[in-house]
Amino acid sequence: MNESVSISIDGWRYTVPAGITILQACRDSGIEVPALCYMEGLVADAACSLCVVEVKGARTLTRSCVNLVFDGMAISTRSERVRDARKTNLELLLANHPQDCFTCDRNQNCELRTLAFDLGVRETPYAPTRRLNRPVDDSSDSIVRDPNKCILCKRCVAVCAKVQGVHAIDTINRGQNTVVSTFGNNGLAHAYCVNCGQCVMVCPTGALVEKSEVAQVWKALADPKKTVVVQTAPAVRVAIGEAFGFPQGTPLTGKLSAALRRLGFNGVFDTNFAADLTIMEEGHELIDRLTHQGVLPMITSCSPGWIKFAEHFYPDLLGHLSTCKSPQQMFGPLAKTFYAEKLHLDPRDIVVVSIMPCTAKKFEARRPEMDGAFRYWKTKLGLTDTGHFPDVDQVLTTRELARMLKEAGIDFARLADEPFDDPLGESTGAAVIFGVTGGVMEAALRTACEVVTGQPLPKIDFEQVRGLEGIKQADIEVGDLSLKVAVANGLANARVLVEQIKAGESPYHFIEIMTCPGGCIGGGGQPISREKNTKNRRMAGIYQADKSLPLRKSHENPSVQALYQQFLGQPLGHLSHELLHTHYLKRGTRTCSDDSPVPPKGNPGAGKEDRNHG
Ligand code: SF4
Ligand code: SF4
Ligand code: SF4
Question: What is the torsion angle, in degrees rounded to the nearest 10, for the CA atoms of residue 246, residue 250, residue 254 and residue 260?
Answer without folding.
Answer: 60
